[in-house]
Design goal:
Oligomer: single chain
Strand order of the largest sheet: 8-7-6-9-10
Strand content: 15-25%
Number of strands: 12
Structural class: alpha+beta
Shape: elongated
Number of helices: 8
Order of helices and strands: HHHEEEEEEEEHHEHEEEHH
Number of domains: 2
Bound molecules: zinc ion
Amino acid sequence: MLRDFCGLYNAGLQQRIEAYRRRRISLGYAHQANELKACRAADPDGLGRWSFTALQQVLRRLSQAYAAFFKRGRGFPRFRATARYHAATFRFGDGLTIKKDRRLGIVGVPGAIKAVWHRDIPEDAKLATAIVTRQQGKWYAVFSVEAAFAETCGTGTVGIDLGLNSLIATSDGATISAPRYARRAQSARRRRQRALARCRIGSKRRLRAKARLTAASAKIARQRRDHLHKLARALVSRYQGIAFEDLNLAGLKRGMLARSIHDAAWALLVQFTTYKAASASAEVKLVDPRGTSQTCPACGTIKAKTLRERLHRCTCGCTLDRDVSAAQIVHQRAFGSGRDIGLQDISQRVAA
Ligand SMILES: [Zn+2]
């Protein structure tokens, strides 16, 4: 199907180019779509098999590529290689349907297609389009849904610290560690990396090893995103105000080696939480991260810690997990707590 769609895309592009070259005519979407019926009739074993509206979408996509070229200064539309043509757009209920047993029906594809559902479609939802894509040998269907999402957030506020011992720590005293499968997946990936390194350059074995490595890396990325989505969801449904350290502050030097490993995950978590909070009318605040791990949340005393110290132990009697104590400082900076920590002093005296 994608091969035929790609062929149509290229033919459409060819037609537009020729029409302009020979007769100085600019063909538009409407003109090309008008010819579609005849094209399908002439090619019953090819284009004729597929959904009419899905083929219209292919021409529309070409039209969009032209519009981007003229209006937004993008490059001139290019001919596409079949191997790199990965997506088809359907109008829901027309080219693509959901069967009673939750399998997918696609016009031209025999039988019903088994699907793993990421989540249920809300009952009152209006389904508009569905995009079927091919990614690393797996097929996905993405639905755009029009519905009144009554997302609700929780109550209370929380400060979150990017943990050193754990993935994150909350000011409520909870620590959430990185999922265990992440470490397993990492070691599998390293093994595949070594296997790749052993293969002779240009050999078939090397190609296969490379494909396996790519698949393993993609899996890790998927798992990480999934986990962070769920974590962000959990935060929003539990709290109304959520504070993170703002790690994008210009000129900030992050001394901690361990942090850089988590940075990518951290940025994603902040991003996911921010947009989920926005749709549930919760609030996300970003605070100055300097000195969060060096300040006592109970008395405000500043005391430098080495990376090895896992506990925050203050002379005032406050003993906490170091990440939890940092999360409490983040919470105080974002939402206040009656005590003034004196951020100005911290940033002058302590390098984070
Ligand atoms: Zn103290």
